[in-house]
Each structure stands twice: as structure tokens, then as C-alpha cells.
Amino acid sequence: MSTNEYTIALAGNPNTGKSTLFNVLTGLRQHTGNWPGKTVVHAEGFFTYNNNRYKMIDLPGTYSLYSNSADEEVARDFIIFEKPDVTIVVLDATALERNLNLALQVLEMTSSVIVCVNLMDEAKKKGIRIDTEKLAATLGVPVVPISARNKEGIDTLLKTIDSMVRGKIKTNPIAVRYSPEIEQCIEKLIPRVKEVIGDAYPARWVALRLLDGDMSLLQALQQQPLPSVKEVSIYACHDTAKSV
């Protein structure tokens, strides 16, 4: 049978067990270095499952993707520009209220997401019960409970990844709604953004970043090989964002 190769991005807050999961899946088939032009560590590994080969990128642990640091820029740029086939967001089962912030940000960027609730063993010790089916229904993407260090739930995670890359899972990510004022600004910006970038990137997310004054994103967009992305157009969008 033919073997296809897919790319998986592994995202999560620090101390969620993200790197433990990375090691469990890739074993010794991994290497590290630095991201181009950054001092941030780049970790890449490989594994095979059900006749498919996967390249897994362990993104830097971050609390957000708002380009407040080099780590956040690296994680943001990989998800939005490299467009991994699957992005796995690892959450700490004992601190979901804190971790879900990053998950919601990722869901604004891509629909090919699996939420992985790790440290379920620790949650059980603390008497925390998580209804992963209800969480999946709310978020609109698969939610898989695991304990990476005990290798529990790994097979279910692999099956979910396999189903997603084969197109057997259709996601419908929750759309975070902001204040009426912000939503009005987003609606004004989206047509202008689409004029410049087309369907290359999620227009709503780009509009949000423009409203946030994210200059690093503008610079990153300038470096992308899109003939329609011209400096005057990109910065005109930014000026529009400031005016609205």
C-alpha cells in the first residue's frame, strides 16, 4: 500500500505534558535545532500509523498566539503559514479554564484541530471529572482524553488523527463572538482583507490581528509567496483597521 506523509503541529501551554506526548509518539525518531532566524528550539519527529507517515512539529509552549514573544510568533506562523494537516492542542486536565484560551485561539486559525486533554490521571486524583463528549460538542472538534506519561489514550488519539487526515471527521469549530463594537469592525474589515489575501488565510482571524495592531503579522504576510500580497495593500488594511 502507498504511504502518505502528513504534518502535525503540537501546540499547548507550558507544563501540559506536550513534549511528553511528542516523545511517546516519535520515540528516538526526532531531532532538534533552531527555527530559522530565531533562538527558539525547533523539535521535529516522525512516526507511522496505519500505512501513513507523520512529521510532528513540537511547537514552543505558549499561553497565547498574539506575537508577544519569539515563541508565540514561531507557533503562530507555523500554524497559519505552514498549514499543518492536523494541529493537536494539548490541555492540562487539572487547569482547563486556563488552557482553553490557547485552544480557542487555534480554532480561530484552523479547523483541522484535535484537542487532547492530558494529565487525566492527575485530574482523577484531584476529583476532577471532565465530560469530553460535551466539550467536543461545544468546541466543534474531537476531544481525546489521555495520560501521556502512562501511555493511556494514545491509541484512541492515533485513530482520531488517522480519521481526520482521511477526511472521515468533519469539524465545526466554535466561533468566538466579541463585543458588538468589535464584531462591527471585523465585518467592515473582512471584505478588505479578502481583496488582498483571498482565501489563502482565514480572513476573520487576520482582521482580528489587524484590529489588535499586530505589526509582526503584517511583516510575516509580506514574506509569503502570494502575488496579491503587496506592501501597499497589506498596510492599507492596517490603516483601515485603525480607522474603524
Automatic annotation (TrEMBL):
Alphabetical list of CDD domains matching this protein: FeoB
Keywords: GTP-binding, Nucleotide-binding
SUPFAM superfamilies named among the record's database cross-references: P-loop containing nucleoside triphosphate hydrolases
Pfam annotation, one family: FeoB_N
FeoB-type G domain ranges (all copies): 5-167
Domain of life (superkingdom): Bacteria
Gene Ontology cellular component list: plasma membrane
Matching Gene3D superfamilies: 1.10.287.1770, P-loop containing nucleotide triphosphate hydrolases
Single GO MF annotation: GTP binding
InterPro entries listed in its UniProt record: FeoB_Cyto, FeoB_GTPase, G_FEOB_dom, GTP-bd, P-loop_NTPase, Small_GTP-bd
Protein name listed in UniProt: Iron transporter FeoB
Species: Parageobacillus galactosidasius
